[in-house]
Amino acid sequence: MGRRGRCGWRLICFAVEYIEVAEDLLLGGNIMLHIGCHLSSSRGYLAMGREALSMQADTFAFFTRNPRGGRAKEIDAADAAAFCDFAAEHGFVKLVAHAPYTMNPCAAKENLRVFAREMMADDLRRMEYTPDNYYNFHPGSHVGQGAAAGIALITEQLNAVLRPEQSTIVLLETMAGKGTEVGRSFAELRAILDGVELGEKMGVCFDTCHVWDAGYDIVNDLDGVLAEFDHVIGLERLKAVHLNDSLNGCGSHKDRHARIGEGEIGLTALQRVVNHPALRGLPFILETPNDHDGYAREIQLLRS
Ligand SMILES: [Zn+2]
Ligand SMILES: [Zn+2]
């Protein structure tokens, strides 16, 4: 390329960059960040919406029932409807509900698998009171049956409970690989997704602590990790991010969350996560050990 050609090319690059920066400024830079935290559902949906708004959140997570399992309180339809109006009025993006930890679709005992299936089916029925949101779950622990057997049982459960008419998208959470957890690698999540008939009802939630603990180095090679995710699963399946620091090192398989900037991942790397072009626009959910004020501070920190 001649001197003039190179100069012209540079000018075009500069113009494109300038337009992108101007667009960011117009959109208010970080206003585009959709962020919230895990909230208690004990006072209902509208109360969660109000609490989220008070901490400048525009999304949130909550347990669909007691995280240690058991019966769920019946949903107050009027409260759910009031929340939907509130969320639309204040520009909330999709919520990321969390299934209870006790739900293990790939348990070895049949009664536990039936329990998991009934719980998920009931949760998905209840999610329709607040349509068009995400329902995130831990794929499960194969408890010695082997990952392949676990994956087969998880897809079996999903095929039994997913309905073509549901508006909820079900998300598989990336796991740390503690014990016999399934979903410790992108390949395992892909294998589950491949077995699901209603694939359009499925997506993935990327937990920064879990991915790091599983051995993906998001501190030194975030681009590489996301490229691998894209290659193995496809970035179009990535629907939400759990934003957590980790108490342990990369590949530790521990799953102990830390507050933002107080763990082994660190603030700089987590800021790169929320600003990454491949992730921008997704709901980011904090699951850090915090109270209301602590969460509000972290949201402010990440918005600044
Ligand atoms: Zn989780
Ligand atoms: Zn998580």
- CATH class (first level) name of the largest domain: Alpha Beta
Number of helices: 10
- Which consecutive residue ranges, at least 5 long each, have pLDDT under 50? 1-7, 24-31
Helix and strand element order: HEHHEHEHEHEHHEEEHEH
The CATH architecture designation of the largest domain is: Alpha-Beta Barrel
Helix content: 40-55%
How far apart are the termini?
42 Å
CATH superfamily of the largest domain: Divalent-metal-dependent TIM barrel enzymes
In terms of structural class, how would the helical and strand content be classed?
A: alpha/beta
Radius of gyration: 20 Å
> How would you describe the shape?
globular
Q: What is the number of strand segments?
A: 9
What does this structure look like?
- With 304 residues, the chain is of the alpha/beta class.
- It folds into two domains: 1-31; 34-303, TIM Barrel.
- Helices cover 42% and strands 12% of the residues.
- It is built from ten helices and nine strands.
- It has helices at residues 3-26, 45-54, 77-89, 110-127, 147-161, 186-195, 208-214, 222-232, 267-275, 292-303, and strands spanning 34-37, 96-98, 134-137, 169-173, 202-207, 238-243, 245-246, 257-258, 283-286.
- A seven-stranded parallel sheet has the order 1-9-6-5-4-3-2.
- The longest helix has 24 residues, at 3-26.
- The protein is globular.
- Mean pLDDT is 92; it is low at 1-7 and 24-31.
- It binds zinc ion (ZN) (2 copies).
- One zinc ion (ZN) binds at residues 98, 138, 173.
